[in-house]
Amino acid sequence: MTFAQIRQQFLDFFADKEHAIVDSSPVVPHDDPTLLFTNAGMNQFKDVFLGSGSRPYVRAADSQKCIRAGGKHNDLDDVGKDTYHHTFFEMLGNWSFGDYFKEDAIKWAWELLTEVWGIEKDRLYATYFEGDPDLNLEPDLEAAELWKKLTDIDPTHVIPGDKKDNFWEMGATGPCGPCSEIHVDLTPDKSGGSRVNQDDPSVIEIWNLVFIQFNRVADGTLHPLPARHVDTGMGFERICAVLQGKKSNYDTDVFTPIFDAIQKKTGAAAYGGLLESDVKRQPDKRNDLMRDVSYRVIADHLRCLTFALTDGAVPSNEGRGYVLRRILRRAVRYGRQYFDMTEPFLCDLVKSLADHMGDAFAELRSANQGKNVEYVAELIRDEEVSFGRTLDRGIKLFDEAAERADGNRVRADDAFMLHDTYGFPVDLTELMAEERGMTVDTAGYERLMDEARAKAQASGAGDDAFNMNIIDAMPSTDDAAKYTDTTLCGQLVGYIHDGQFIDDGDVPYGETVALVLDETCFYGEQGGQVGDRGDMEATGESPGAFDVPGFRVTDTKRFGDTVLHIGELISSEFPLVVGTNLKLSVDPDERIQIVRNHTATHLLNWALREVLGSGVDQRGSHVDSEKTRFDFTCRKPVETDELDRIGKLVEDKIAANLAVHTQEVAETDARKINTLRAVFGEKYPERVRVVSIGADIDAMLASPDDESWMQFSVEYCGGIHVDKTAIIDRFVLTAEEGVAKGIRRVVGITGESAANAIREGENLSTELESIAQKIEAGESVELADMQQCLSDAVIPISVRHALRQQLTDLQKKLKKSQKASSAASADAVFAIVDELVASASSLSDIAIVTGEVPSANGDALRTAIDRVRQKTEGSAVLLATHDGAKVTLMAGMSKSAIAAGLKAGDLIREVAPHVGGKGGGRPDMAQGGGGNPEGIAQAVTAARDWIRGKLGS
Q1: Is pLDDT above 50 for 543?
Q2: Where are any strands of DSSP class E within 741-836?
Q3: Is residue 729 a contact partner of residue 737, using CB atoms and an 8 Å limit?
Q4: Distance (Å, rounded) from C-alpha 7 to C-alpha 928?
Q5: Distance CA 849, CA 894 (A)
Q6: Which of 67, 103, 517, 881 could staple 490 via S-S, CB 3.0–4.6 A?
């Protein structure tokens, strides 16, 4: 069977067992902040297991895209070294939500493996939980007996396993239960029974059946769940290897087409499947081993990157983005060192992967408006080019570091420099060291990283006012009132402090805490809209009630179904006790501006597509009281005329005073509406809240293909909006920039802020007109301040572009005017200087030339002194000038004057006090100045007397 047939047979089998076949959720879990990546099939059903969500079915099956790289589940370091580890893999799974339990799960697993797929029964082993007396956990004898009763498995192949392998827990508290793992013995003589759960590739786990039947509470005790669930997961690549008779996952047709594409692109010798154990027997095969390791790493990492980027992730320097950047750089390094790929090559393999897996995962081709291959390839190409700039130098530096290593260990400072300067993640350095039989001083490296982080934090980076640990089983908050009210009464049921939820006692004063109430009208940050701010005070019915605001809410966040009101007690005089009834008051002025900006964001999203085309996809947004910031896919900067059209479309919708409709509907129905927009890569629940600006939602559901709906904004959204668009009042775009390859960002403002921006733009335009008139009149102007004003001002972006162009033109005109003025000024100075020379007296063959000249800059004065030197045998000169406020003095001495004891610097220091200033310089040329033009005559006279005195007159 092909890999596609195996996947389909699994789904068909469970479809026949009345399971709903559901789509894989994205590998980027946008709705689960606890995960870097989707790492198991159960992730999309986590809310069902926690009891906070439901589905319209009680049985489900799918093939889930998974990534295990970073975090608790991390297989990255093992990829390439063995036959079965992957960063990206598929997990086949079937689930029961309070329906069937152990009996059917075991019976059907055996039926599929042995009757449908024909795996030899005497090769299969089933484990069950052996219990743990220390934790008061009973053995799962029920599962053991069901294996023996319902199947014809060899009873000796039903073996116990410990808590590590056979008891599943979602977290420290919450749903949990025993599991039964199915292993297959791949040894030729079927003698591998003793190797079950020993990480031996010849006896591997292929399916895990988890029986979720308990709830663990905070004190560690287990309580039976009212509804018991089944959660199973089977490694797709592993079962393909078993069914295709291969010893390695990489030998199956899951990977061979990718290897063919790699060979075609790199020109490398064909993949040979060598492992480290082979080289121990044949040391001369070391280079061939590294070739095969490279094949495995590149194929695996290509799969991981392509699926992650398709589902909305982007390489970056933090979080999942950094994990992906590390993965990409590992693959690039292997290609460079072992396939001699000096140019980008991973990017050219994306299409081959999409062709190979696109039938099962259509998003590989259809995402990004059908241009996903190009989009992902370009992202990868940019990363390859960026890393390629430092890769060769980094490899050379590693070679040098290996030579000066402390014994067999690469020094911490070298590992840090490779990371900090050349972009080598430390795990890549460790991998390179391992290839040489060396290690890395990771403890020292971490110390250096900690020091770097401390410096960054000291400079203001990474400063969080509130850092909340993930907490399981938080009480839920009814926040339905957020859509209708800004005041409400609710009861304080607890608070979070230092990462712990506390449900009794006083709220501490002087500490940042997060209050949890039974209900609230505060909006918790979600979907790009920031959390509300405001106040809370105890009501009269509460003990210790007070009439002034007692708790200031500085932020509101959402964690699952819990709303967290983050802030501090205002006064220590008014204690706040769990159980108190509180009057909640959202800041009304801030709320109205936030909702204006949020509705404007929807109109902006629609207008962007209208102007730039349907290829525009939202990549993120941030809505607060000051602005809306919107990131979207676009391969080039948005032109000024396009920005004008986008802003005009938004303004037109505001002026039309359209009604804003909201309604909760079935996601499958809503998705049919032709104009509806969803965030790319987001996984939505069965029922969604739809926000439509201008079109009735029921009418759209009745005729979802009606082309007239395209003129309206329709989105999934859980945020708060205005009732009518006229409330937004005004809208202007104030900024447009690139934030990543293929991602642009625009910023807009609304209401009075927009009106102020328009007025500010008009004021700056008027100011520039005034400056232009001064330049025409030959007056002195300063443009540097205006340049800064344009950079700092919040004004319409089209106005900013126009004013910048106007300022550039004025700078050119001013430079031309100053050049002409300078020439005229120099001519006037030269004329006066010639008169001064003609009337100058001389002593010891040194002409004494002192006097005031017309306003001129320093260059003109220095040129005038050179002119004196050309007209005399020897000279001692002082020239003075002013511009009405500032005096400039310039002194110059010829060689003969210096030989006679005259120094220009001394002369300036002597006479500058007469004009209220000071100065100095070299013996042959010096400059000074002051702020008293009326003292120029005295300075000139003093200069003449000083020169005569020095010459012995």
Answers
A1: no
A2: 743-750
A3: no
A4: 87
A5: 12
A6: 517
* Helix, strand or coil, per DSSP, at residue 36: coil
Q: Which amino acid is at 513?
A: V
- CA separation, residue 604 to residues 108, 208, 527 (Å): 52, 47, 16
Give, in order, the Cα–Cα distances in Å from 689 to each of 272, 510, 670, 748.
53, 39, 9, 25
**Residue 947 — pLDDT band, cuts 50, 70, 90?**
very high
* Residue 176, beta-bridge partner list: 169, 214
CB 639 within 8 A of CB 793: no
pLDDT tens-digit readout, 640-669 = 999 999 999 999 999 999 999 999 998 888
CB atoms under 10 Å from CB of 92, counted, come to: 23
pTM, full prediction:
0.59
* 713-716 β-sheet, strand order: 660-666, 687-693, 713-716, 676-677
The CA distance from 192 to 188, in Å, is 9
Q: Do the beta carbons of residue 924 and residue 887 sit within 8 Å?
A: no
Q: Is the dihedral of CA 158, 161, 165, 166 positive or negative?
A: positive
E-only strand ranges, 26-173? 59-67, 88-97, 124-129, 158-161, 167-169
**CB-facing half-sphere around the CA of 446: CA atoms within 13 A:** 5
The rounded distance, in Å, linking the Cα atoms of 597 and 731 is 9
How far apart are the C-alpha atoms of 465 and 556, rounded to whole Å?
12
Q: What is the separation, in whole angstroms, between the first and last Cα of the chain? A: 116
- Beta carbons of 242 and 235 less than 8 angstroms apart: no
123 residue type, one letter? R
* Token representation of residue 355: 């062709």
Look up residue 121 and give its two tokens: 């029964």
Which DSSP letter does residue 132 get? B
Q: Which amino acid is at 438?
A: M
Q: Which residue has the tokens 């030899």?
A: 120
Q: How far is CA 320 from CA 120, 471, 679, 741, in A?
A: 41, 21, 18, 17
Rounded CA separation 737/638 (Å): 8
d(CA 183, CA 70): 26
CB 426 within 8 A of CB 441: no
HSE (CB half, 13 Å, CA atoms) of 643?
24
Query: pLDDT tens-digit profile of 379-422?
Result: 999 999 988 877 888 888 888 888 888 888 999 999 898 888 77
Q: Are 876 and 893 in contact (CB under 8 A)?
A: yes
Give me the percent of the chain exceeding a pLDDT of 70.
Answer: 94
For residue 903, give the nearest of 877, 880, 928 by alpha carbon: 877
